[in-house]
C-alpha cells in the first residue's frame, strides 16, 4: 500500500515501534521544541489558552516523514516546560475529511472549546473538495463533527482552507484562505458565522501575490489589524524578496471594510521570518497578549532527519507587539522564565558550549559569529548594510532547490541580538526584535561559538522539556 494515504490503523505494531526507535535515537531530535513522536509535523492548529492551560494541536502524518494523510495531535502545557501529550486528537472519520484533517483553529463557545478546521476529500474523479467543519473538543478529542461551510465551486477553485473566527463591529465572521475562481489568485474569504453565507472576498492591489493565501491570521494589535498569511506562488519584486518555496508575510490595516471587500490603508506585505524553515504560524491570545507559534519547516525540502522517521517541529512561542508602528517578536516570557538555567556573563571571542543554549549580546559594530565545531558550522554575519545567516558549511546538507544565504536589511546601528539553539535548529532575533531568522541545521556535534573579536555576551543552558504520554 502507498503510505501517503495509509491510515494509522493499517501500520503494524512493528512498523510503528521501528519508527519510534529511530526518531528517539536521532541526534537531531530536539530537546526543547515540540516535535512528532514519529512522522511529519507541520502546521500548528487549534491554539487556545483556557483556565491556565495552553492547548497546542498540530497537523501530523503520524508514522512516515512524508506529506500524506493528515491527522491532528494535541499536547497541553501550563509552563512550556512540562507537557502532556494526548495523542491524535482528530482523525479522518467522516467523508469530508477522507483525505486529511487539514488546518484550523479553536475558540470558546458556551464554555466549550470548539474546533474549526478544513476537511480534505477527493472524489472518484480526484477532484478536491475542501469543507469547513466544526467540532467540539471533549476529553482531548474532537467529537460531534459537522459540516459548517460547503466548498463553493462557483466562487473558488480547489484551494479553500484554514478557517478562524473574528468579531468585527460586534458580529462574528469565519474567514479562511481561498483561490478565486477564474482569476486563480489568492484571497481571504469572510462568511457570516450565523448564516454561513459569504459576505466578502478581499480585493487588493499587490501584483503577483500568489494563487492561494494559506493560513490567514487576523488579530487586533494596538489600534491596527495585524494580518498574517502565506501567499503560495508569490513572486519577488522590488518591494519584497521571497527566499523560500512558500513564505509567510504580514501587513497592517486600519480597518476591514467588508462591504468594499478591502483592508483599509494596508501596508505592503513584508516577510514575518527571514529564515530557511518557517511557515504557517498561528496566533492566539493569552491574557490579552498575542502569542504566535509557527511550523519550523517548509515544503519541497528533504531533511537528514527524514531517514529516521521524523520531520518538522514547532517554533518557540513568541509574543507579538506593535511598537511605534513596527512589528516586534519576542520569545514569550513564560517560556523563557521556565526553560533556562545556568546563566553566565562572558567576555571572550571563543567559548565552549552545550548543544542547546541561548545567547544574547549587543553590538554597534560589524560582526561574524560561527556556531559548530570548527570544521562544521553555521554563520551569522552583521555588516553595515545587511544581517546574513548562512548554513552552507553544516555537516549534513538538506536537499532543496532554494538553498543559499538568508538576509535582512540592517535597520539599526545599535543591535540587540538573541539566539536560541537546539539540536538541529536556530532562531535568531535581530534588528532589536524587528526581524527573525528560523532555520534548521544539521551538525552532529555543536561544541563552540566563535566571534571574530572579543565581545561581552550572556549565555544560558536550556532545559529539556518533559513530555508525558497520556493517550
TrEMBL record:
The keyword Hydrolase applies. Residues 33-331 form the Glycosyl hydrolase family 32 N-terminal domain. SUPFAM superfamilies: Arabinanase/levansucrase/invertase, Concanavalin A-like lectins/glucanases. One of its GO terms (molecular function) is beta-fructofuranosidase activity. GO terms for biological process: carbohydrate metabolic process. It comes from the Bacteria. Keywords: Glycosidase, Hydrolase. Residues 356-442 form the Glycosyl hydrolase family 32 C-terminal domain. Belongs to the glycosyl hydrolase 32 family. This is beta-fructofuranosidase. It comes from Spiroplasma tabanidicola. The lineage of its organism: Bacteria, Bacillati, Mycoplasmatota, Mollicutes, Entomoplasmatales.
Amino acid at each position: 500500500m502507498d503510505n501517503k494515504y495509509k491510515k494509522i490503523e493499517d501500520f503494524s505494531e512493528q512498523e510503528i515501534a521501528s519508527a519510534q526507535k529511530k526518531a528517539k535515537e536521532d541526534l537531531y531530535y530536539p530537546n526543547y521544541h515540540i516535535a512528532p513522536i514519529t512522522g511529519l509535523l507541520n502546521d500548528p492548529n487549534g491554539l487556545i489558552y483556557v483556565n491556565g492551560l495552553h492547548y497546542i494541536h498540530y497537523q501530523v502524518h503520524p508514522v512516515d516523514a512524508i506529506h500524506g494523510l493528515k491527522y491532528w495531535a494535541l499536547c497541553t502545557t501550563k509552563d512550556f516546560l512540562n507537557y502532556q501529550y494526548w495523542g491524535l486528537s482528530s482523525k479522518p472519520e467522516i467523508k469530508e475529511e477522507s483525505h486529511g484533517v487539514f488546518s484550523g483553529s479553536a475558540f470558546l463557545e458556551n464554555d466549550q472549546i470548539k474546533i474549526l478546521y478544513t476537511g480534505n476529500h477527493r472524489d472518484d474523479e480526484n477532484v478536491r473538495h475542501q469543507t469547513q467543519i466544526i467540532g467540539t473538543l471533549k476529553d482531548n478529542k474532537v467529537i460531534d463533527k459537522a459540516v459548517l461551510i460547503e466548498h463553493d465551486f462557483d466562487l473558488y477553485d480547489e484551494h479553500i482552507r484554514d478557517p478562524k473566527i473574528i468579531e468585527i463591529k460586534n458580529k462574528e465572521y469565519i474567514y479562511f484562505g481561498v483561490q478565486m475562481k477564474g482569476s486563480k489568485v489568492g484571497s481571504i474569504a469572510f462568511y457570516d458565522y450565523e448564516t454561513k453565507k459569504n459576505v466578502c472576498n478581499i480585493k487588493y492591489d499587490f501584483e503577483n501575490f500568489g494563487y492561494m493565501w494559506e493560513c490567514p491570521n487576523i488579530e487586533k494589535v494596538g489600534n491596527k489589524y495585524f494580518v498574517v498569511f502565506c501567499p503560495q506562488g508569490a513572486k519577488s519584486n522590488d518591494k519584497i524578496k521571497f527566499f523560500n518555496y512558500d513564505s509567510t508575510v504580514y501587513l497592517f490595516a486600519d480597518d476591514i471594510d467588508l462591504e468594499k471587500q478591502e483592508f483599509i490603508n494596508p501596508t505592503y506585505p513584508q516577510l514575518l521570518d527571514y529564515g530557511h524553515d518557517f511557515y504557517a504560524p498561528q496566533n492566539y491570545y493569552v491574557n490579552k497578549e498575542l502569542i504566535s507559534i509557527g511550523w519550523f519547516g517548509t515544503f519541497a525540502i528533504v531533511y537528514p532527519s527524514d531517514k529516521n522517521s521524523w520531520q518538522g517541529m514547532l517554533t518557540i512561542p513568541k509574543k507579538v507587539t506593535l511598537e511605534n508602528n513596527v512589528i516586534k517578536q519576542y520569545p514569550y516570557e513564560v517560556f523563557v522564565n521556565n526553560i533556562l538555567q545556568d546563566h553566565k556573563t562572558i567576555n571572550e571571542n571563543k567559548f565552549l558550549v552545550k548543544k542547546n543554549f541561548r545567547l544574547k549580546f549587543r553590538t554597534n559594530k560589524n560582526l561574524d559569529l560561527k556556531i559548530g565545531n570548527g570544521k562544521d558550522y553555521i554563520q551569522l554575519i552583521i555588516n553595515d548594510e545587511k544581517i546574513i545567516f548562512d548554513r552552507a558549511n553544516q555537516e549534513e546538507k538538506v536537499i532543496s532547490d532554494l538553498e543559499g544565504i538568508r538576509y535582512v536589511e540592517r535597520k539599526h546601528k545599535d543591535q540587540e541580538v538573541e539566539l536560541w539553539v537546539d539540536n538541529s535548529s536556530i532562531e535568531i532575533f535581530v534588528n532589536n526584535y524587528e526581524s527573525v531568522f528560523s532555520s534548521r541545521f544539521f551538525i552532529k556535534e555543536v561544541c563552540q561559538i566563535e566571534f571574530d573579536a572579543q565581545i561581552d555576551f550572556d549565555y544560558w543552558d536550556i532545559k529539556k522539556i518533559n513530555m508525558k504520554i497520556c493517550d
